[in-house]
Each structure stands twice: as C-alpha cells, then as structure tokens.
Amino acid sequence: MTARPSDTVLLTVTGRDGPDTTSRLTGLLADAGAELLDVEQVVVQGLLTLALLVRPSASAPEGQDPWQALLLAARELGVTVDVRAVAPVATPGGPEPLRYVVTGVGKTLGAREVHALTARLAEQGARVERITRLSETPLGSVELHVTLPPDADPSSLKRALLALSMESPTFDVALQRESLYRRGKRMVVMDMDSTLIRIEVIDELARAHGVHAKVAAITERAMHGEMDYDESLRQRVALLAGLDVQVLRELAANLPLTEGAETLIRVLKRLGYRTAVISGGFSVAAEALQARLGIDFAYSNMLEAQDGKLTGRTVGTIVNARRKAELLETLAKQEGILLEQVIAVGDGANDLLMLEKAGLGIAFRAKPKLREAADTSISAGGLDTILYLLGLTARELREVT
Question: Does residue 193 carry a catalytic annotation?
Fold first, then answer.
C-alpha cells in the first residue's frame, strides 16, 4: 500500500546495526516535526529491526514527501526502510485483553519446540505480541508476551500448555498472568523432600532402621486416601522408634540437593528475596539445609528423642497441608510481603494449599494432579528454572552469581 504524505505510517528499518543508526533516523523525524506514536527495536546477531509508527507534521509543506530525507539517510547508513500506511491508532475502549507471559525453558529450544509452543497458543486464540530470549547460546529459554480476548477462558490455555509440557519431557512451559507483581516477588517458600532435596528423608531413615517396606505401605495407603496425612505420619514415625539419632544427623549433614537449588538460593539472596523451607519432613534435616544454604526460615516436624534414640513420636503441631499454608501466610505478614509477592514450590498433595495461597504456585516434578492444580509447573529443568519465571535473563543472572 503506497503511503500518502498525510498518512500515519509504519517505518520498518532493517539491516546491519550501527552505533548511530537509531539516533540519526529519529533525529531526522524530530527535525521534520513528525509525531512518534510507537517504537520497538531489536538487534539479533548484529542485524537491526527498528519499527517506528509516526504521523507527519501537520505543518509539512504540501506535496513534499516527508520521508525523503529519512530514506536518503538510511541509504547512507546501509539499512533499508519500508514505508507502509496504517490505519489510525484506535482510542482504547471497552474491556482490555487478558495479558499473560508464557515462558518456555529447555536444555535447547529449536524450531520444533518454538513451533509447538506458538502453534498451541494460536489454537487457543492467544496473540503473541513480543518474544524475548532469556538465555544465551544455546537458545534455552524464551519469554512470550501474549494476549487473550477479554471473554476468553484462561484455564483452557493453561490446560493446553500443561499438555504440551507433558508431551515434551525436555521442555517446560509456564503460564503467568502479566501484572504488577509478576516481577515484584519478594519471598520464595519451598517444600523440602523431593523438592529442595532429591530424597524423602523418612524413607532413608526407614531403610537404615530396616522398616522401609512397612513405611512405604503406610505412605501408599495415605496416597490412596485411606488415612489422612497426620495419622500416616504418626504411624510411620512410630516405626522409627529406637533408631540412633546419629543416623539422622549424618543423613542431614549429607542431603543431596536438587539440581539448581544452590544457584536459586544464592541468586534470590543476592536480590534481597526472603526464603523459607516449610516441610512435612523433619527439623534436623530442614535446619541443616537452612544453615548450609543460608535460608531465612525453616519449619518442619520435630522428632522426639531420649537417650540418643528416637522415641517414635513427634513434638508440637504437625506440619500438614493446612499448617503449611498457615505458615506461609504468617511469614508473609511478618515480613510485610503481600501474598501476591510470594512464590511457593512443592511436589506433593500436601503442598497444594500452600501453592494456592501464594501469588505463584509452582508444582516441581510433581504428579499430574498437582501440576493441573498449580499455577504452573516445572518438570524438565532444575530449581534454577524458577529464575527464568521471574523474567530474569542469563545476562542478568551472571551479574549476581
């Protein structure tokens, strides 16, 4: 479409980027009195794409091409300019579209993965407005800003992206509502067993005490809803009666951390986040992790001991699903942090209430039921994947690691 001198136009500049390309071109627009309505620029491998939505000056001489000087300068700079007339920018009115951020993370993301993601978005009626690379070479993480129609069902998009993640074992896709608090998180609360560490402490203690099969049978019954969490914990802990406390201490001193755990905590601390472990596991292990990683708070179940042996009982209130959610809320209030600014991470059914309470609930390497209920999930990557969900780039992470 040929632009007339009075048209609002989209100027698309492409070519090798130079140190003064944008400056020269915008200077010419300013000299001509053109009104700048919108601007976007990206440089990929030294190649520039600059988009400028402009309206010529009302006082420009009639019959004169207002873009002639800019086209001549572009030729000198070694770039090309496409001049395209566009419809006038509409005044915003009616319901705003729903805005979301989709984060794709994998060891490497190729055309196949990006296509699968964008195709799934298109099927759901989501319009991609911007794609940003978060990782460096190789391409491992991208962030897509998308919109949905005001009357769309976001849960349908969430289910579609969850299905995509489940189909691709090396590729995680996270969906978050774009809001003031997305990059304004201030606290991260984590489960311990099978989340912050790779093991279940009670299973390891049961093996050391020769009662693993019995403990596993109780766990299985609880998972099938045959008993509640509190009763299952009491029965499993009772089987540990007589175990030397030193076994627990040695295990706590050598807990195998989940991939990315140290990086996650180190970066969060450098950025001023508060961190907490809220676990249905045991305090000796949770407090050992707290000291090892510099975590701010640790809440878990305390095992009773007498004469250097476990009694088979716990002390105090059991940290169950409801208690986890209560502790998260109490911590947030204590620290003056809104619930919308809290991230909760867990893998089991007893983490669900905690994940629901937080502004962002992340199911980490969890069963499908929790993944479906959580805001988003991570299965392929390590815990440091959470940093990409905060919108941090690899370049920014280098500054704090």
Answer: yes
